[in-house]
Write a structure and sequence with these properties.
Layout lengths: L24 E5 L8 H8 L4 E3 L15 H14 L22 H20 L4 E4 L9 H18 L4 E5 L12 H9 L7 E6 H6 L7 H14 L5 E6 L1 E2 L10 E2 L8 H7 L9 E4 L11 H12 L7 H58 L1
Parallel strand pairs: 1-2, 1-9, 3-4, 4-5, 5-6, 6-9
Antiparallel strand pairs: 7-8
Keywords: Endonuclease, Hydrolase, Nuclease
Protein name: Apurinic-apyrimidinic endonuclease 1
Organism: [Candida] jaroonii
Length: 371
């Protein structure tokens, strides 16, 4: 009787081939539905050289712990597919977390979730953790910055190696981080500066008023970054076009090339040596039916943009195609922005007139008293 031949496992096939020798770590935020180890195959499926994920449900304060077996499977798959968890993975913190909240009870709750995330990172051997720096709400802004730094220091003391990466923000309301100086001020108050970094989001940057849509403007922004914060702190990029115009202070992500930043910004990024070897993570919006294709297509677009010049005919054609596709939505958001700006200007004029009238009335009252 012939011996039975053991069946070999069929190789896993992925939708988009990964370019392992790419100098840029282009990637995207991937799902962990079914367990954190699922993120590895999801990243491979879109041809990603880096990826982001949630460490637990972003809609809950408390989630079950990561099982030991799942953590081991995650690390084993990282080794199998060549992801270095210390440098290639950028988990995103819960949007609930606000370490600068002036309400002490809410601050404590946020801190508990924050440290839980950091410990999950270390259980998975992940070296980076990205989060939104929060808001001062109705509190004093400078005190909020000091409180944020205090909580970062406390969290560093409770953990071993994970780097806490502060993301810049779009700038609406009392958000921290809409200007680079906010982030520098927080870093100045962090004791162990080797454990803190910065993630620059392209949409947030543009919405906050920093124009990065041309080579000259892009370079000007990074000169400011270098002067105020310093290159050594740059740990990651979030890659998004912007549905809202420059300085709109609205966090509205758009697909690459369809928004107000335009494809030129991403061509510049795909040819910027200083942005090599750090996670460059797509967070562009996914519409129904695009779940399995959008990020794979956008990563291939970024790889295609490498070595493309601004006057390259193929680039110009692609730029025009994508710009035309997003034209209607840009026009809608521009109209909203212009209406809002006009209303704000009218209100400011009325408020100024009231203050002037009040001052005149006060002067007249004083004059009448003296007479």
């Amino acid at each position: 009787m012939a011996p039975k031949i053991a069946k070999t496992a069929k190789p896993v096939e992925f939708k988009y081939p990964r370019v392992n020798d790419c100098k840029f770590k282009f990637g995207a935020h991937v799902s962990v539905s079914g367990g954190v180890s699922k993120a590895i195959h999801n990243a491979m499926d879109i041809g990603a050289n880096s990826f982001a994920m949630f460490l637990k449900s972003p809609r809950k304060w408390v989630s079950p712990e990561i099982p030991d077996a799942e953590a081991k499977k995650f690390q084993d798959l990282c080794k199998e597919f060549g992801y270095n968890p210390r440098t290639d993975i950028l988990p995103h913190g819960s949007y609930f977390i606000n370490l600068a909240n002036p309400d002490k009870e809410k601050e404590e709750k946020a801190y508990g979730s924050f440290v839980d995330d950091l410990k999950r990172c270390e259980k998975l051997n992940i070296g980076l953790y990205n989060f939104h720096p929060g808001s001062s709400l109705d509190g004093d802004h400078k005190e909020a910055l000091a409180q944020l730094a205090k909580n970062i220091n406390k969290a560093i003391a409770e953990t071993e190696f994970v780097k806490i990466v502060i993301e810049n923000m779009a700038g609406h309301g009392n958000l921290i981080g809409s200007n680079l100086q906010d982030i520098r001020d927080v870093i100045d108050m962090v004791d162990n500066k080797e454990r803190v970094g910065v993630c620059v989001d392209t949409c947030h940057t543009f919405a906050a008023g920093y124009d990065i849509s041309t080579v000259e403007l892009f370079n000007d922004f990074w000169k400011q970054f270098e002067t105020i914060i310093g290159w050594d702190y740059l740990s990651a990029i979030h890659l998004n076009d912007s549905k809202a115009p420059l300085g709109a202070n609205r966090d509205l992500h758009q697909k690459l090339g369809l928004g107000f930043l335009g494809l030129e910004c991403f061509r510049i990024i795909a040819n910027s040596e200083k942005l090599q070897n750090i996670p460059i993570i797509l967070e562009t919006p996914i519409e129904k039916g695009e779940e399995d294709t959008l990020y794979g297509e956008e990563i291939k677009l970024l790889e295609w943009l490498q070595q493309k010049e601004v006057d390259d005919e193929e680039f110009i054609s692609k730029q025009t195609q994508l710009s035309n596709k997003g034209a209607k939505e840009r026009a809608e958001h521009l109209k909203k922005f212009e209406t809002k700006t006009k209303k704000a200007a009218t209100k400011a004029e009325k408020d100024a007139a009231k203050r002037k009238k009040g001052s005149l009335d006060s002067l007249m009252a004083k004059k009448q008293k003296t007479e």
